[in-house]
Structures are given as C-alpha cells and as structure tokens.
TrEMBL record:
Keywords linked to the UniProt accession: Signal
Domain of life: Bacteria
Source organism: Arthrobacter crystallopoietes BAB-32
Residue ranges, annotated region (Disordered): 29-60
Protein's UniProt keywords contain tRNA processing: no
Protein name: DUF305 domain-containing protein
Range of residues in the leader sequence: 1-26
Keyword set includes Signal: yes
Feature: compositional bias, Polar residues: 32-55
InterPro entries: DUF305_CopM-like, Ferritin-like
PANTHER family according to UniProt: SLL0788 PROTEIN
Domain DUF305 as annotated: residue spans: 65-206
Length: 209
C-alpha cells in the first residue's frame, strides 16, 4: 500500500510538471505568435504611410505656366541668335561682347529647362492660336543687325535688346503673378530681376556710344 501510494504520488508529480511545461510552451507560442502580429501591424502602417505619400499629388502646372514656357523659349532663342550675331563681328567693344556672352550663357540653359518642363507636363512646344510675344524682332530687324558693323552694330544691338528684354520682363511678370508651378514662377522672378538689371546696363552703354 505504501509503495502504491508512493508510485501514485510520483506519477501525479510528473503529470503536474508536464502540465506546467505545456502551459509555458503555450504561453511562449502565444507570445511568439503575437510578436509577428505586432510587426505586421507596424509594417502595414509603414506601407500605408508610404502609399499615401506617393499618392499625394505633385504641384500641378496651369495654363499660365505652359504659356510662359511656350512663349519664352522662342523669345530666348532669338536673344541667343542676336548675341551670336554680335559675337561674330570683328572689333566689337569689349563691354558689348561681354554683354552678348552673358545673355547667351544665361538664356541657353533656360531654354533647355523650359523645354524639359513642357515635355514633362505633356504640353506642346508651341502655342496654338498665334499669340504674339512682346519685344520680338522681325526678320528685317535681324537682317539689319547682321549687316551692321562697328558702333552702328553696337547701337542697334543695344536698342533692339532693350526692347527685347522689356518684352521678356512683361511676360515674366505675368507668370510670376499667375503661374502655379514653383520652378516656373521662380524662373520668371529671376528673369525679371536679371533682365531689368541688364536693361539699365544697356541704357548706360547706349548713352556712352
């Protein structure tokens, strides 16, 4: 009897021990299962945040931005053409040649920049409807500039470029007031500042001729 009781007690103790281990294992498994759930929730939250970030609409351009680029590209191209005409002439006043270099080096990269905008926006390179651009020279004006030499060429270049710059400033002010794309508006403001200063410089050079 005593031996039977001892054996029963041993069996009972073993059973209790196994039950405790099983409970610990279950708890550990439950905790292990809960951890990935928390991680999944965190990951899901992160993905949701990234998804909402990429879905946020970018700054959109408007018709004023498109028109500014469409008009300013050929306007800049003509300024570069006029500058090249002057730089091809012999015996040019160093101040005039430097001005022509400055205009060309500033406006050529801006042409590329605005061309890139129109492509990115899905806008045509040219406007429909034949809008005129203020300050543009006629073919006759350009022919006179190309044929002129010496001080006559310098005087004609300054006179034409002052008018040309005034037209650019007018268009840039319109964009600065009505544009939507931050880069386009920033370029317009830069054009106003830079070309207004160049107009003043050209007026001074013209007065000294």
């Amino acid at each position: 009897m005593k031996r039977y009781s001892a054996v029963s007690a041993a069996v009972l103790a073993t059973a209790l021990l196994l039950t405790g281990c099983g409970q610990d294992t279950a708890d550990d498994n439950a905790a292990g299962t809960a951890q990935p759930t928390a991680g999944s929730t965190s990951q899901g939250t992160d993905l949701g945040m990234h998804g909402s970030s990429s879905a946020a609409p970018a700054e959109e351009h408007n018709s004023a931005d498109a028109m500014f680029a469409q008009m300013m590209i050929p306007h800049h191209e003509q300024a570069v053409e006029m500058s090249d005409m002057m730089l091809a002439k012999d015996g040019l006043d160093p101040q005039i040649s430097q001005l022509a270099e400055d205009i060309k080096s500033a406006q050529a990269p801006e042409i590329e920049k605005m061309t890139g905008w129109l492509k990115a926006w899905g806008e045509p390179m040219e406007m429909s409807g034949g809008h005129g651009m203020p300050g543009m020279m006629s073919e006759e004006d350009l022919a006179k500039l190309e044929a002129a030499q010496g001080d006559e060429a310098s005087r004609l270049f300054l006179t034409q470029m002052i008018e040309h710059h005034e037209g650019a400033v007018e268009m840039a002010e319109e964009e600065a007031a009505n544009g939507s794309d931050p880069e386009a508006v920033a370029l317009a403001e830069s054009v106003v500042e830079t070309q207004t200063a160049e107009i003043k410089k050209m007026q001074e050079l013209l007065a000294d001729l």
